[in-house]
Write a structure and sequence with these properties.
This protein is an all-alpha fold. The chain is built from 21 helices and 2 strands. It has a two-stranded antiparallel ribbon with strand order 1-2.
Length: about 425
């Protein structure tokens, strides 16, 4: 039952005295007078329940989003979700829905820090699989999962999820150019045609995967910058070579993942999730009942496991290689946390690239185990490389009857000498 008209007018007048409310009502989210009146009334119900003003409600939400702890960031969501449940019981689902819509619209217009109310609370969701064994065995665990992928295409998809963390919808929309555009010159011809923009770094250059920009519909996934470590390069090359042999040449604009039986692009993501569950089962990581519970949709093994691993490692700062939380959001195509992050914390692509390079040695699963070489081991390795280079220089000289070396040949030999010199340092 609606409040009396006079009471509703009193609520409207009280709310309209705040600049944040005026800004909200003048935004694109309010398209008609009926929407305006409906939102004002239902937003007033929420503020009366919380006993706060619009500005206090906005400030509390911004404070929550700046917290590092997940539970602290959801304090306002829990309050609104509790009031939503109360309204559903007393005034019906329509009133509860309009209250949530009004609150989300207000925050979107003023802060960008939206509420996650309509989805089930975290405690009601089945946890995704997270590796809980010895940290030293995490690398080998995920390597075993990838090695048990049903096809080379599935192995490539797993690696992209583990090392870049894109959304599943973004993975399906990736083109060949999105994945290969930053591979270095010297790769197979399908990679050489791509523009090279890789930046040298001590651990090798990360390869950027560009996610398509967001569409107008809220159903479409947000775009952003995702990176992948050098581990997956050989797998991607193998997959594309197999694809070329089976189905002929392809264009850089063609979709990256295809059905290896028909050659048709993947339209639905279920096949990748099914492949991931099969890999977990074949690798002996989980039992059949764990991988395939009665409601398979709630299986802890799904794409989000790989995305969550990427996020966890990028944020982990125990060895000084962690990335700022807002930058991780950008890398994973999340909305930056809080109004300050949305408006000010906007790292450039080179900064993101450098930050990702710091964490790359931990995110790769096929990386070589680090070990310290003794002086004798290092000198043996250096002398071997130097001897091989000397033999190559002699062979190059023998090819030329005049015993002179062209400028191009000398430049190549000098580059190899510089590589050996850097190893010596």
């Amino acid at each position: 039952m609606r409040r009396p008209t006079a009471e509703r007018r009193q609520i409207d007048a009280r709310l309209l005295s705040f600049e944040s409310v005026k800004r909200w009502l003048g935004s694109e989210t309010i398209r008609s007078k009926n929407t305006r009146d409906c939102y004002l009334y239902h937003f007033g119900l929420l503020l009366d329940h919380l006993k706060v003003t619009p500005d206090e409600f906005m400030a509390e939400r911004i404070k929550d989003m700046s917290e590092q702890d997940y539970i602290a960031r959801t304090r306002m969501e829990l309050k609104v979700r509790g009031f939503k449940t109360e309204l559903e019981a007393t005034k019906g689902k329509y009133t509860a829905f309009q209250m949530v819509a009004a609150a989300c619209s207000f925050l979107k217009a003023n802060t960008g820090a939206r509420l996650n109310i309509n989805n089930p609370p975290p405690e009601a969701q089945r946890d995704v699989f997270e590796y809980e064994g010895d940290p030293a065995g995490e690398q080998g665990f995920w390597r075993n999962i990838v090695d048990h992928a049903p096809t080379i295409r599935d192995a490539v998809a797993f690696l992209i999820g583990l090392e870049a963390g894109p959304r599943d919808g973004s993975l399906l929309r990736m083109t060949v150019a999105d994945v290969t555009q930053e591979f270095r010159v010297g790769a197979p011809r399908e990679f050489q045609a791509m523009p090279s923009g890789a930046v040298d770094s001590p651990r090798g250059a990360p390869y950027k995967i560009t996610v398509p920009p967001p569409g107008e519909s809220h159903v479409k996934k947000r775009g952003g910058f995702n990176f992948i470590a050098e581990d997956a390069k050989a797998r991607i090359e193998t997959y594309l070579s197999l694809r070329r042999r089976r189905f002929g040449d392809y264009q850089p604009s063609d979709l990256f993942l295809i059905d290896l039986e028909t050659g048709q692009p993947l339209r639905y993501f279920d096949c990748i999730n099914d492949a991931l569950r099969k890999a977990f089962l074949d690798a002996g990581a989980l039992s059949h009942d764990q991988v395939y519970p009665p409601d398979v949709r709630m299986s802890p093994v799904r794409w989000y496991c790989l995305r969550k691993r990427a996020e966890t490692i990028l944020e982990d700062n125990r060895d000084g290689s962690g990335i700022a939380l807002n930058w991780v959001d950008v890398l994973l195509s999340h909305k930056p946390r809080g109004a300050q992050a949305s408006h000010y914390s906007r790292p450039t692509v080179p900064l993101l690239r450098d930050a990702y390079a710091k964490a790359m040695h931990r995110i790769m699963i096929y990386r070589e185990t680090r070990r310290e070489m003794s002086d004798d081991e290092f000198m043996t390795k250096f002398n071997k490389a130097w001897a091989m280079l000397g033999d190559k220089m002699a062979r190059e000289a023998e090819k030329i009857q005049s015993q002179t070396i062209s400028g191009r040949q000398m430049a190549r030999i000098l580059r190899e000498l510089m590589t050996v010199s850097k190893e010596a340092e």
